[in-house]
Design goal:
By secondary structure, the protein is α/β, with parallel strands linked by helices. The protein has six helices and seven strands.
């Protein structure tokens, strides 16, 4: 099993959205690697202060930015307003009971968030419910030691096993810096 723990504190949001992270982990670079299309409705799960949310909104049809923390969602909303993107819905949730319709999302993205999810089985079950048939799930986690990777190192086999147990099928794994990008589809 991968390490599952506590959500990132909103008081430390500066570490999630700053010039150093934009330099090392440009949102557009990651988004270019996951195969997002302009017709996709994307869920940015664990959106934090909106580091990837705004760039997703520029590339996709619409974005649902989900975070457990109301403070993080407020930061993401301010970032979206400043960037003048309007195709974002903000939703506070732990992922167990998403206020979204069945099959309403084409793509779910989690960037260094999967290891923070408490009840993985329930969250993955909910992801399966809201994902369209053939929809995709991208989990990005640190898989090797690196100077500028600030999340804990995860076991790729554990991620694959947990997600496939929830009826998602691993389609592809990519390497990006110290990160593994695990691309799954809904069976």
């Amino acid at each position: 099993m991968s390490q599952h723990g506590h959500p990132y504190s909103a008081s430390a949001a500066i570490f999630l959205d700053n010039f150093l992270r934009r330099w090392y982990q440009p949102p557009s670079e990651l988004i270019g690697k996951i195969g997002l299309t302009q017709n996709d409705t994307v869920m940015d799960f664990g959106c934090g202060p909106g580091f990837f949310t705004v760039e997703l909104a520029k590339k996709a049809k619409s974005v649902v930015a989900v975070d457990l923390s109301p403070e993080m969602l407020q930061k993401a909303q301010k970032k979206a307003a400043k960037s003048q993107v309007k195709n974002i819905q903000f939703l506070q949730s732990d992922g167990i009971n998403l206020q979204l319709g069945d099959g309403s999302v084409d793509f779910i993205l989690l960037v260094t968030v999967f290891h923070e999810v408490g009840d993985v089985e329930s969250v993955l079950k909910e992801f399966w419910r809201v994902t369209k048939p053939g929809g995709r799930l991208a989990i990005v986690e640190v898989v090797k030691k690196a100077t500028l990777a600030f999340a804990p190192i995860q076991n790729p086999e554990a991620i694959k096993s947990e997600v496939e147990a929830a009826n998602f099928k691993l389609q592809e794994t990519k390497q990006w810096k110290a990160y593994g990008i695990f691309l799954f589809t809904k069976k």
